[in-house]
Amino acid sequence: MNASEAEARLRLSIEERALLYDLGRAIHEIVDLDQLLLEAVGRTRSLFGVESSAVMLLDAAANEFYVPYVADVAPDVERRLAAVRFPADRGIAGAVQRDGQVEHVPDVTRDPRWFGEVDGRTGMTTQSLLCAPLRGRNGSLGVLSLRNKLTGGFTADDVRLIAAVGDSIGLALDTARQLGDARGTAERLRDEVEVLQQQLARGTGTEEIVGHSAAMQGVFRLLESAAALPVTVLITGETGAGKELIARAIHTGGPRRARPFVAINCGALTDTLLESELFGHRKGAFTGALSDKKGLFEVADGGTVFLDEVGDMPASMQVKLLRALQEGEILPVGDTAPRAVDVRVLSATNRDLATAVREGGFRADLFYRLSTFPIVVPPLRARREDIPLLATRLLQRTAERFHRAAARFTPAALARLCAYDWPGNVRELQNEIERSVALAPEGEPIDVSDLSDHVRGHDAASVPPPLVTAGVTLRRARDLFEREFIARVLSQNGGNASRAARALGISRVMLHKKLRAYGMRRMDLVRASA
To answer: Could you name the CATH architecture of 382-529?
Structure first.
């Protein structure tokens, strides 16, 4: 080599180093994986002066290459190549992946390893290729592929340069993936913390379930058994009966209580949106999927997923849910690699799923999988003796939430609540109480006039007040009866204490003592009699 050739080679090496420095600085400053790949293909296409530059990433689980980003002179080729997946053990790229060495092929038609199917599917015409491995800390990540030099052919300098570029991109790609994994872990933890905070704000769930009726005692026994065992529970009952409260109580009473409890209404979303909410999705999987998203199964990993109204789940999703239950893994929308999850699934429905199975409206195999341990929540009208206690509890909590003074019901209003059938169950009762608290004057008790027309319209006298119930002592039952009886007599006498005392056979002084003892006011009773 003469002096001029040596000087030219030295100048080239300096230029190469400058180019590598600029490229390396640009891509190593990027931590977002998508932005990194976009920058890498754009800069390498310009650096080498080629028709196309593509980063082919390895999907190890499927043993396939996919092309998340490509820079090509033809936009149509970019779009088609980005949608292609092909075997990772085929073609020139497969050889680079296997051997970990740069490959320069001046004429692909003369190379027996050439896999021309990619050209056929994308409309490309490949003449020459220059490919380099992309290596990470724990092995191969994929291949950097350059296609067709715009001027002349690939040179020895290009071969040497692409090896360095491939190493630089591989290291940056590996770092970006690790940071992405760390961010994903942080996001998952943040999601879990938010879920747990919501659970704390709501309470554990068990204190929300009120009832001493025989029907509810049976539910409580089943609830305790379900909490202690890792069985799949199907909770059935009418809308508003408190099925989610039962599910929360099972979760908080079991070994997964420290992990998230997440709930979703299966009948409120379309197939694709429900699948995305449950299993997550990859960026670009469908219109509006602007970034990767974890599904509820991943957010609740180690905890519980509650599928409300599971009977309304679309048929296509029933198949995917069954697979998740059987295999313990999910497949995000737009992804090819399944992910293992550890969740307990509780479900609820207001439909008769056994009938739906017979009529072909619900998969039999999924039904049997979900209904290993069934719990039936009785409607409120089937446990009227629970209404006074439940209504009082809801009234206290509603007053606190509305920042109102402690409220109470007049006996007549409570009797009307007990007489009503509550087709919407506890949820309807909650709404009724919220409405009544909003209407009643500050500090005044909830009276019949504060109730809705359809609740007020029922004949309270036709249903005996459920004051004497199971679990109430004789002394307490006597006090409850006496209070109710005094209230009725006072109401019948328009609140006149003298007439009421004579009717009761006691002195007026004794009547006032009993009114104070029971926290009763005559004006309340006058309004109740109106």
So the answer is: Orthogonal Bundle (1.10)
